[in-house]
């Protein structure tokens, strides 16, 4: 079973005029660094579903079936679903 990989809800990026003018004046190297930093920030904000699953599996008394139910509920909550089935 492949476990969930959740990202923060996408938010629209808005630029101020000052930021726009600064970015517009970037050379290739500066723009690459800016975009890589932006992507790295997004990666750092991901929820590690496999780690959550592995940590929950260490709790005494939680078997594989219950573990799958718990991870399904977490997945649904993070994705914004109301139905956990």
Number of strands: 0
Radius of gyration: 19 Å
Largest sheet: none
Tally the helices: what do you get?
A: 4
Rounded mean pLDDT score: 79
The stretches of 5 or more residues where confidence is low (pLDDT under 50) are 1-7
Question: Structural class of the helix and strand makeup?
Answer: mainly alpha
Tell me the β content.
Answer: under 5%
User: For the terminal residues, how far apart are their CA atoms?
Assistant: 16 Å
* Structural domains: how many: 1
Helix content: 55-70%
Order of helices and strands: HHHH
The global form is elongated
Structure write-up:
This protein has 85 residues and is mostly helical. It has one domain (17-79). Helix content is 59%, strand content 0%. It contains four helices and no strands. Helix 3 (49-57) runs antiparallel to helix 4. The protein starts with 16 loop residues before the first helix and ends in a 6-residue tail after the last helix. The model is unreliable at 1-7 (pLDDT under 50).
Keywords for this structure?
59% helix, 4 helices, 85 residues, mainly alpha
List the helices and strands and how they pair.
Layout: H1 17-24, H2 28-44, H3 49-57, H4 64-79
Helix pairs in contact: 3-4
